[in-house]
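Teaching soon. Invent one.


***
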Amino acid sequence: MEKKDYLKILVEQIHSTTIATIGADSHPQTRVIDMMLWDEDGVYFLTAKGKAFYTQLMEQKYIALSATKDKISISLRGKIRNIGSEKLDEIFEKNTYMQGIYPGDTRSALEVFKLYEAEGEYFDISEPSHIVRDSFVIGNAVKTQGGYYVGDGCIGCKLCYSVCPQKCINIDKIPVEIDQNHCLHCGRCAETCPKQVIVRRA
């Protein structure tokens, strides 16, 4: 799948997300926020100008969010910007329940935020013996190469494969290769490697 597929799942299938910011006490703070729209440029949500959440968004200009449904999860970390009332009418048209929360002109209390530059991860455990993991970016964010990787010095002993829950290590070549799209990031391979050449990145 591609970025647009993940954003569509996030907004149209999962919809409700948990967003983290830093509170006034300098500790992480979370709240559940609905993702209202998506396009190739990002994801859109809104909040009322009188909320502490609004103040945090304006000051920090960065969020982390996670959402899960039916054993599928999507996470995003990145930059946001306030776009005011832009897309507000479209949001109310596509999310009709909002008309009952903010009827008539009371929607003027709301402003829209756009997550426009972010790293994302898709994680699917709906088929437990064959998990799927993928990463993607929005905008100019840099994709981080996370996970476990096999370096020089691999002797092809296959001990890593023997302890891998997903059996996602190709042992037909040396050095062996971990399939990042099916890896749990559990670290058992690194713990077992007699040469200690399996390392975790980011």
About this structure: The two ends are 23 Å apart (CA to CA). Residues 163 and 171 are 13 Å apart (CA to CA).
